[in-house]
What we know:
Elements: H1 3-15, E1 21-25, E2 29-35, E3 45-49, E4 52-58, E5 70-76, E6 88-92, E7 95-101
Antiparallel strand pairs: 1-2, 2-7, 3-4, 4-5, 6-7
Amino acid sequence: MYLSEYLINQLDRNYETSSRACSYIDNDKLIVEFYAPGLNKDSVDLEIIDNRLLLKGEGKKKDKGFNAINLDKEYILPEKNIKLSKASAKYDAGIITVTLPLDTSKRSKIKLN
């Protein structure tokens, strides 16, 4: 095995424990994105319990010796005013995007003096 193949295999093994996620608010929606290339979208399970977003999923074994991808992640939601009935998710180009509409009725503006 060449050194480059070895390094790629090591990176692939480490991916299982280092998947990335980011979140941001856009137009009164909390968006959470998980970087998860190679997942089988039919095997993805998303669930919200209290203020935790749980993600589980697995992918098929790749050619050239790459490992199968298995995810079991928990993301703590920074907002508690989420309209759960309107939550949605999609998987596109290796990214899982979860859209969580926020209830903005309890917000108020603060005036600076």
